[in-house]
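Many introductory courses stop at the sequence. We go one step further.
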Amino acid sequence: MNVEADGLFGAPPITVVVGEEVHPSLLKALGLLGLGRNRVVKVPLDSQGRMRPEAIPFVTSPALVCTQVGNVNTGACDPVGDICERTRTSGVWVHVDGAFGLWAAASPSLAYLTDGVEQADSWATDAHKWLNVPYDSNTARLRESEA
């Protein structure tokens, strides 16, 4: 049994949906959490590296869709609002990995790239990517304080 790759034996399965160019740190985190790096569903991307909402399979809770705002390879931002609309009725948690691109929300000329991120359930970003602070300066936020 390989817990990092296949998840915890006997634990209820949690479906995790990611784009084909998911950042390796997210897969590493899934392994550390016991969710299994090999149990993810990878969704095809468009020509710019954005997750295609129509390609997300129908999943029900417990499930997690991990979007990217700032693809590490292209800088592309997933259409988070469209993804939230597609998954919301089935109780799926939508997370935004905003390490590279979530800071665009602060720029009037780039904020459109983050349209719809407010509909997500959680967000994470790395201050060291843009704000020139120490490497381990990260933030995580949840939409609902109860979570």
